[in-house]
Prior knowledge:
The structure holds two protein chains of two kinds. Chain A is α+β, with helices and mostly antiparallel strands. Chain A folds into two domains: about 5-75, Ubiquitin-like (UB roll) (Roll); about 90-155, DNA polymerase, domain 1, CATH 1.10.150.120. Helices cover about 30% and strands about 15% of the residues of chain A. A five-stranded mixed β-sheet of chain A has the order 2-1-5-3-4, sandwiched between helices. In chain A, helix 2 (about 90-95) packs across helix 5 (about 145-155). Chain B folds into three domains: about 5-55, Uridine Diphospho-n-acetylenolpyruvylglucosamine Reductase, domain 2 (2-Layer Sandwich); about 60-175, Uridine Diphospho-n-acetylenolpyruvylglucosamine Reductase, domain 3 (2-Layer Sandwich), CATH 3.30.465; about 180-285, CO dehydrogenase flavoprotein, C-terminal domain (Enolase-like, domain 1, 2-Layer Sandwich), CATH 3.30.390. Chain B has helices spanning about 15-25, 35-40, 80-85, 85-90, 90-100, 105-110, 110-115, 125-130, 150, 225-235, 240-250, 265-285; strands at about 5-10, 30, 50-55, 65, 70-75, 135-140, 145-150, 155, 160, 165-175, 180-185, 195-205, 210-215, 225. Chain B is globular and about 60 Å long. In chain B, about 55% of the residues are buried. Chains A and B meet through strand 4 of A and helix 2 and helix 6 of B.
Amino acid sequence: MAKSQVAMKINGKTIEALVEPRTLLIHFLREQVNLTGPHIGCDTSHCGACTVDLDGKSVKSCTVFAVQANGADIRTIEGMANADGTLHALQEGFREMHGLQCGFCTPGMITRAYRLLQENANPSEEEIRYGISGNLCRCTGYQNIVKAIQFAAAKINGVPFQEAAE
Amino acid sequence: MIPGSFSYHRPTSVQEAVGLLAKLGDDGRALAGGHSLIPMMKLRLATPANLVDLAGIAELKGARADGNDIVIGAMMTQHELIASELLTAKVPILRETSLLIADPQVRYVGTLGGNVANGDPGNDMPAVMMCLNAAYQVSGKSGERRIAARQFYQGAYFTALEPGDVLTAVRIPAPAPGHGYAYEKLKRKIGDYATAAAAVMLTMKAGKVESCSIGLTNVAETPLWAEEAAKILVGSALDAATVKRAVAAAEAITAPAADARGPAQYRTKMAGVMLTRALARAKSRARA
């Protein structure tokens, strides 16, 4: 099958490559661009571990062909840290609030939460839980992931973070 | 999982897409958001030799009022639909339904056109479209035509679409101002298809049901329009006895399969429970 030429901006860098039309975006990112932050979890569009930010949308990169992303602007977990190398507020929140145990779901959780906070700078706990309902975590029970996102929202908004009473 | 090989086409007009699909015949499939088709391709349950991606066709985007109709482009995503002020104001049942479909990531990409054209009885929008008496605008080899949603679904994954057809838009007669609406969906978890779901649209006048329409999701090979049940309710005050008769009429037309969501009888009963709840909520929202 003839390969297609694609060009896309990934974490601010323009990448050009030849892909088979059937190449899924997650395989392209991991195997051709060497960005192994986005993970393959379920491979069936459920778990969200492969989530990347694509033209302002959170998408499951296991369910998009790389050719469909031709011309797109993509951000993965590798592009999340601040320009000076310090952690993004979300990364800091996951560390401070123990928002991960094994860490497998974390890249997807953070990229998804990034878009959620872009759309809703001050989400309620319920909105956070609904907003990350396409991302599965098998370790944490979500409690600390929600806290991590609340921590990040507070930090971005410049207000002190107050942990809700248990 | 890696899909079979295919050639990728990205037309920029409906005309070009229809021409391609007509030429490719059974070897071509239209690609909308792809969140039903791509998983099928990964499982090799679908192995199209050609994909015709509709994402580059500007005329398939957006929603607008056209006379007394609301016209929604087939490539409008669920996410865009949820954010649409026009649709939220005129046909709020669409937003309520969209919010119950899949999860945020899927809604960013999944489209209304794909949801209604796919013919999967688990999709939520088809029953809502039957309930709303929507029509689908279709472009094909022999030009454009409209197919009523109530006539569109023939069996699981079988619809009135012919090879080479592209469903371009959904046309909904604007519901009366002050109408009541509800979509009630029972599911085991976020992202699941319905165990059973019910869509209700109604208008009330002096405390009585003036008009009513009911759609049911995932309790038969096709979405269902529960015409008889709605007829029973018209003229009533939605008193318990009449609702019970209508629910029995709705349950009678269901024919669900037993699956991991439960035995057939249970799913039929849940369709009745969803309808009862949807009727109560639609009534509470209607201006009498």
